[in-house]
Write a structure and sequence with these properties.
The protein has 242 residues and is of the alpha/beta class. The protein has 3 helices and 21 strands. The longest helix has 17 residues.
Amino acid sequence: MKACLIVLLIPILILGYATAARISVGPEDEDYPQIQQALDNSSEGDIIEVHSGTYKENVYIFKKVELLGVDTGEGMPLVDAGGSGSVINIMSNDSIVEGFNITGSGHCGCGNAGVLVDSSNNSIKGNTIYNNKYGIFVRSGNSNNTFVSNDLLDNNITVSDDGNSTWNVSVELTGMQALVGLFTGKAEQNFGNHYSDYDEPAEGCEDADGNGMCDKPREIGDGKSRDSYASVAPLNRLSKGK
């Protein structure tokens, strides 16, 4: 009986993966001109690729997707909320947001942010988040969200998080990198984030060993979480659009 169930489930699983679509967003000749249009017409598990350009909108993610910024020659795509609400709102678990310039949130202390997270198990990486009320705001009660390789620049409040998120990761080197690591004594590559309020000695960021990371961790929110590999310099290209 178990064998029969497995045989029946295999085509269902294969079909589920096969139906995941890749959707493009861009100013010309793409599937949609706006990010929210693509999200509204997507299905669970779809990959939405947003090409270079400026997108003046508030973005709401209500289903599991990969939202990926693609530099098609004019820099990372810019999402600008124009001073209203949060720029990117992640309301569904298990989503990925990567490769965007994110700015222009509203100024309400209620949680207006560059990235507002009201869900769990998401990955937010490789973004430049600047000039918002909060850079990142994680609503209380959500957990296991990971933030790495982001630049948080000149936000009124850099981060609000109750301590249930991950702000740095270590990845074991493989292949040629692992071989080089045998000679350098480095078996892992460490990833954290860059913070404009924590990148100078006066702010507590010393780099005595010259490895490009602050010697002391950057405490997040009320100090329950920390970024052990905070970067001294920005990690991504800032594109302010046209």
